[in-house]
Amino acid sequence: MYIIVAGGGRLGYSLTKALLNEGHELLLIEKNASVCDKINKELGSLCLRGDACETAIQTEAGTGRADMFIAVTGEDEDNLVACQVAKYRFNVPRTVARVRDPKNEDIFKKLGVDVTVNSTNIILERIEHEVPSHPMTHLFCISGDNRDFELLELRAAAGAAGLGRPMNELDLPAKAVLGLVIRGGGKPFVPRGDTVFQPGDQIIAVAPPETEDDLRQLFAGK
Q: Which of 66, 91, 107, 216 has the maximum number of C-beta atoms within 10 A of its C-beta?
Protein backbone atom coordinates (compact mmCIF):
# COMPACT_ATOMS: atom_id res chain seq x y z
CA MET A 1 0.00 0.00 0.00
CA TYR A 2 1.32 3.47 -0.90
CA ILE A 3 0.69 5.91 1.95
CA ILE A 4 1.52 9.62 2.11
CA VAL A 5 1.91 11.29 5.49
CA ALA A 6 1.78 15.08 5.79
CA GLY A 7 3.61 16.48 8.80
CA GLY A 8 7.00 15.39 10.07
CA GLY A 9 6.58 16.17 13.75
CA ARG A 10 6.80 13.53 16.46
CA LEU A 11 3.48 11.98 15.47
CA GLY A 12 4.23 11.99 11.75
CA TYR A 13 7.71 10.60 12.28
CA SER A 14 6.53 7.80 14.57
CA LEU A 15 3.64 6.94 12.27
CA THR A 16 5.92 6.83 9.22
CA LYS A 17 8.41 4.61 11.00
CA ALA A 18 5.69 2.22 12.17
CA LEU A 19 4.12 1.96 8.72
CA LEU A 20 7.52 1.33 7.15
CA ASN A 21 8.09 -1.52 9.58
CA GLU A 22 4.79 -3.02 8.43
CA GLY A 23 6.07 -3.09 4.85
CA HIS A 24 4.14 -0.18 3.34
CA GLU A 25 5.56 2.21 0.77
CA LEU A 26 5.79 5.63 2.42
CA LEU A 27 6.40 9.23 1.53
CA LEU A 28 6.37 12.02 4.11
CA ILE A 29 5.75 15.70 3.28
CA GLU A 30 7.26 18.28 5.65
CA LYS A 31 7.67 22.06 5.35
CA ASN A 32 10.69 22.43 7.61
CA ALA A 33 13.95 21.78 5.73
CA SER A 34 15.98 20.73 8.78
CA VAL A 35 13.28 18.32 9.94
CA CYS A 36 13.05 16.86 6.45
CA ASP A 37 16.84 16.42 6.23
CA LYS A 38 16.91 14.70 9.62
CA ILE A 39 14.16 12.26 8.62
CA ASN A 40 15.91 11.45 5.35
CA LYS A 41 19.13 10.67 7.19
CA GLU A 42 17.36 8.42 9.70
CA LEU A 43 14.77 6.69 7.55
CA GLY A 44 16.09 7.02 4.01
CA SER A 45 15.14 9.42 1.23
CA LEU A 46 11.40 9.40 1.84
CA CYS A 47 10.75 12.97 3.04
CA LEU A 48 9.68 15.57 0.49
CA ARG A 49 10.13 19.18 1.54
CA GLY A 50 7.08 21.28 0.83
CA ASP A 51 3.56 22.32 1.78
CA ALA A 52 1.13 19.39 1.55
CA CYS A 53 -1.71 21.85 0.93
CA GLU A 54 -0.25 22.71 -2.48
CA THR A 55 -1.33 20.76 -5.54
CA ALA A 56 2.16 20.97 -7.06
CA ILE A 57 3.73 19.30 -4.01
CA GLN A 58 1.13 16.55 -3.97
CA THR A 59 1.72 16.02 -7.68
CA GLU A 60 5.44 15.61 -7.00
CA ALA A 61 4.61 13.21 -4.18
CA GLY A 62 2.63 10.99 -6.55
CA THR A 63 -0.61 11.44 -4.67
CA GLY A 64 -2.54 10.24 -7.69
CA ARG A 65 -1.42 6.67 -7.04
CA ALA A 66 -1.68 6.81 -3.23
CA ASP A 67 -4.00 4.40 -1.43
CA MET A 68 -4.19 6.57 1.68
CA PHE A 69 -3.34 10.15 2.64
CA ILE A 70 -2.76 10.96 6.33
CA ALA A 71 -2.44 14.59 7.51
CA VAL A 72 -0.98 14.98 11.02
CA THR A 73 0.49 18.48 11.06
CA GLY A 74 -0.03 20.68 14.10
CA GLU A 75 -2.60 22.86 12.32
CA ASP A 76 -6.19 21.72 11.80
CA GLU A 77 -6.61 24.01 8.80
CA ASP A 78 -3.59 22.53 7.02
CA ASN A 79 -4.75 18.98 7.72
CA LEU A 80 -8.19 19.72 6.30
CA VAL A 81 -6.93 21.42 3.14
CA ALA A 82 -4.28 18.77 2.48
CA CYS A 83 -6.88 15.99 2.77
CA GLN A 84 -9.30 17.84 0.50
CA VAL A 85 -6.62 18.29 -2.16
CA ALA A 86 -5.74 14.60 -1.94
CA LYS A 87 -9.37 13.47 -2.09
CA TYR A 88 -10.89 15.82 -4.65
CA ARG A 89 -7.90 16.64 -6.85
CA PHE A 90 -6.15 13.25 -6.82
CA ASN A 91 -9.04 10.91 -5.92
CA VAL A 92 -7.25 9.24 -3.01
CA PRO A 93 -9.69 6.60 -1.73
CA ARG A 94 -8.98 7.10 1.98
CA THR A 95 -8.03 10.29 3.84
CA VAL A 96 -7.20 10.57 7.54
CA ALA A 97 -6.76 13.83 9.43
CA ARG A 98 -5.54 14.74 12.88
CA VAL A 99 -7.91 17.15 14.65
CA ARG A 100 -6.53 19.11 17.57
CA ASP A 101 -9.69 21.10 18.35
CA PRO A 102 -12.68 18.77 19.00
CA LYS A 103 -15.02 21.50 17.71
CA ASN A 104 -13.58 21.03 14.20
CA GLU A 105 -14.30 17.30 13.95
CA ASP A 106 -17.82 17.64 12.49
CA ILE A 107 -16.58 20.18 9.95
CA PHE A 108 -13.86 17.81 8.77
CA LYS A 109 -16.39 15.00 8.25
CA LYS A 110 -18.88 17.24 6.46
CA LEU A 111 -16.13 18.43 4.10
CA GLY A 112 -15.19 14.91 3.06
CA VAL A 113 -12.40 13.69 5.33
CA ASP A 114 -12.96 9.95 5.74
CA VAL A 115 -11.44 9.46 9.20
CA THR A 116 -10.67 12.02 11.91
CA VAL A 117 -8.37 11.35 14.85
CA ASN A 118 -9.00 13.56 17.86
CA SER A 119 -6.34 13.23 20.56
CA THR A 120 -8.70 14.66 23.18
CA ASN A 121 -11.29 11.95 22.50
CA ILE A 122 -8.61 9.26 22.49
CA ILE A 123 -7.48 10.31 25.98
CA LEU A 124 -11.09 10.38 27.23
CA GLU A 125 -11.75 6.95 25.76
CA ARG A 126 -8.63 5.60 27.44
CA ILE A 127 -9.87 6.98 30.76
CA GLU A 128 -13.28 5.36 30.15
CA HIS A 129 -11.59 2.04 29.47
CA GLU A 130 -9.56 2.23 32.68
CA VAL A 131 -12.61 2.94 34.85
CA PRO A 132 -14.33 -0.44 35.40
CA SER A 133 -17.63 1.15 36.38
CA HIS A 134 -17.93 3.16 33.18
CA PRO A 135 -20.93 1.74 31.27
CA MET A 136 -19.87 2.55 27.72
CA THR A 137 -16.60 2.97 25.83
CA HIS A 138 -16.29 4.42 22.33
CA LEU A 139 -13.86 2.19 20.49
CA PHE A 140 -14.02 3.54 16.96
CA CYS A 141 -16.03 5.70 14.57
CA ILE A 142 -16.97 4.10 11.26
CA SER A 143 -17.69 6.72 8.61
CA GLY A 144 -19.88 5.71 5.70
CA ASP A 145 -21.09 7.56 2.62
CA ASN A 146 -24.34 8.67 4.20
CA ARG A 147 -23.87 8.38 7.97
CA ASP A 148 -21.55 7.44 10.81
CA PHE A 149 -21.65 4.40 13.08
CA GLU A 150 -19.93 3.90 16.43
CA LEU A 151 -18.16 0.75 17.59
CA LEU A 152 -19.04 0.56 21.29
CA GLU A 153 -18.22 -1.57 24.29
CA LEU A 154 -21.10 -1.84 26.77
CA ARG A 155 -20.81 -3.25 30.29
CA ALA A 156 -24.00 -4.95 31.41
CA ALA A 157 -25.08 -3.87 34.91
CA ALA A 158 -27.23 -5.82 37.36
CA GLY A 159 -30.87 -4.78 37.17
CA ALA A 160 -30.64 -3.29 33.67
CA ALA A 161 -33.67 -3.75 31.41
CA GLY A 162 -31.75 -5.72 28.79
CA LEU A 163 -30.75 -8.52 31.18
CA GLY A 164 -32.63 -11.70 31.93
CA ARG A 165 -34.50 -11.88 28.60
CA PRO A 166 -33.51 -13.40 25.24
CA MET A 167 -32.02 -10.95 22.79
CA ASN A 168 -34.86 -11.42 20.30
CA GLU A 169 -37.27 -10.06 22.93
CA LEU A 170 -35.28 -6.87 23.56
CA ASP A 171 -36.38 -3.53 22.17
CA LEU A 172 -33.08 -2.75 20.48
CA PRO A 173 -32.67 0.64 18.76
CA ALA A 174 -33.03 0.67 14.98
CA LYS A 175 -29.82 -0.20 13.08
CA ALA A 176 -28.01 -1.18 16.30
CA VAL A 177 -26.24 -4.53 16.05
CA LEU A 178 -24.88 -6.52 19.00
CA GLY A 179 -21.94 -8.32 17.46
CA LEU A 180 -19.90 -9.92 20.24
CA VAL A 181 -20.13 -10.85 23.94
CA ILE A 182 -17.27 -11.43 26.37
CA ARG A 183 -18.42 -13.17 29.54
CA GLY A 184 -16.31 -13.61 32.64
CA GLY A 185 -13.02 -13.36 30.81
CA GLY A 186 -13.94 -16.36 28.66
CA LYS A 187 -13.85 -16.81 24.92
CA PRO A 188 -15.85 -14.18 23.00
CA PHE A 189 -19.01 -15.41 21.27
CA VAL A 190 -21.55 -14.02 18.83
CA PRO A 191 -24.94 -13.57 20.50
CA ARG A 192 -27.97 -15.29 18.98
CA GLY A 193 -31.67 -14.62 19.30
CA ASP A 194 -31.91 -16.83 22.41
CA THR A 195 -28.85 -15.31 24.13
CA VAL A 196 -29.66 -13.98 27.60
CA PHE A 197 -27.30 -11.26 28.77
CA GLN A 198 -25.88 -11.38 32.27
CA PRO A 199 -24.43 -8.78 34.67
CA GLY A 200 -20.80 -8.13 33.86
CA ASP A 201 -21.07 -9.08 30.18
CA GLN A 202 -18.95 -6.97 27.85
CA ILE A 203 -21.02 -6.37 24.73
CA ILE A 204 -19.49 -5.07 21.50
CA ALA A 205 -22.06 -3.19 19.43
CA VAL A 206 -22.19 -1.21 16.18
CA ALA A 207 -24.77 1.56 16.29
CA PRO A 208 -25.63 5.04 15.00
CA PRO A 209 -24.54 7.78 17.44
CA GLU A 210 -28.13 8.81 18.18
CA THR A 211 -28.92 5.36 19.63
CA GLU A 212 -26.14 5.41 22.25
CA ASP A 213 -28.36 6.65 25.09
CA ASP A 214 -30.95 3.94 24.38
CA LEU A 215 -28.26 1.23 24.44
CA ARG A 216 -26.78 2.64 27.62
CA GLN A 217 -30.15 2.57 29.37
CA LEU A 218 -30.88 -0.92 28.09
CA PHE A 219 -27.70 -2.49 29.42
CA ALA A 220 -26.31 -0.10 32.01
CA GLY A 221 -29.50 1.19 33.61
CA LYS A 222 -29.42 4.59 35.26
A: 66
The amino acid sitting at 133 is S
Amino acid at the residue 131: V
Choose among 38, 44, 9: nearest CA to 26. 44
Which tens digit of pLDDT belongs to each residue from 52-65? 999 999 999 999 99
Q: Are 52 and 90 in contact (CB under 8 A)?
A: no
Q: Are strands 25-30 and 2-6 parallel, antiparallel or unpaired?
A: parallel
Residue 176 CA to residue 208 CA, distance in Å, equals 7
User: Does the reported pTM lie above 0.70?
Assistant: no
Is 203 in contact with 180 (CB distance < 8 Å)? yes
Contact present, 211 and 152 (Cβ < 8 Å): no
Can you tell me the distance from the alpha carbon of 8 to that of 36, in angstroms, rounded to the nearest whole number?
7
- Read out DSSP for 110-150? HTT-SEEEEHHHHHHHHHHHH-TT-SEEEEEEEE-SS-EEE
Where does 9-53 show beta strands of DSSP type E? 25-30, 47-49
